[in-house]
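Researcher: I need the complex structure. Ligand is magnesium ion. Inputs:
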Amino acid sequence: MVKNNILNQNNVLISLGSNEGDREKNLHTAIGYLKETEALSNIVSSSIYETEPVGLLDQPWFLNIAISGISSMPLTNLMQLCKSIEYAMGRKIGVRWGQRNIDIDILLYGTETVHSKQLIVPHPRMQERRFVLMPAAEIAGDRIHPIFGETINELLQSCKDRSIVKELISLQTLDLK
Ligand code: PH2
Ligand code: MG
Ligand code: MG
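Model: Output:
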């Protein structure tokens, strides 16, 4: 297998969302866990956006954020870690696309593409969702989607989703320490 580089460090792009409880605190807590476990280093985060629910409309508005970082953790382990953070934060198994206190989705993992029963990377619906692409474009607009061969900025430009996504807490004022 050809590794991305000799240290096998991968540039990871993650989307987080919350529409239950203290939404902002939930995002901070989840990012804190990712830092603490050293799953990700060199974390860069987007602003926090308040977003209209997509898929299942009758639920509270979300806060969404995107973060990028470097990870030397294999993709499946990182996915398991994201799931265990959701579990540790008390996420309940609810309806698909329904209300949740925290959702952590891996969008991109280096240039890897995986399509298994447990995991699909790149995230299969990222190109259809403004609430994913807007925050992601803020920190990784030039990153190329390994399947579509287009940048995040280009995907955002051609995205037909017109649901509302508004910047709530700008990167400048966001304190993610
Ligand atoms: N997540 C979903 C379904 N719908 N809508 C918004 N605005 N933000 C989300 O994070 C979101 C959603 C399923 O993961
Ligand atoms: Mg999701
Ligand atoms: Mg998810």
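Model: Summary of the prediction. The pocket of magnesium ion (ligand 2) is lined by residues 103, 105 (CB under 6 Å).
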